[in-house]
Amino acid sequence: MNLKNIIYTSYDGLTDPLGQSQILPYLLRLNLNENYKITILSFEKPKNYLLNNKLITKKLNDSEIRWIPLKHTKRPLIISTIWDVYKLKKAISKIRINTKIDLIHCRSYITSLVALELKNKWNIPFVFDMRGFYADERVEGYIWKKNHYIYKRVYNYFKSKEKEFLQSADTTVSLTNVGKQEILSWKLPNQSPIEVIPCCTDEVLFQEKNVKEIRSKIGFEKSDFVISYVGSTGTWYMLDEMLDFFKLLKLKKLNSKFLIITKDNPKIILEKVKSKNINVKSVKIQSSSREMVPTYISASNFSIFFILPVFSKKASCPTKMGEIMNLGIPIICNNGVGDVEEIMNQCMPELLVKKFSKKEFNKIINHITDDYKIEKNKIIKVSHKYFSLSKGADKYSSIYKQILN
Question: What domains lie within the chain, and their CATH numbers?
Answer without folding.
Answer: 4-198+389-404 (3.40.50.2000), 208-386 (3.40.50.2000)
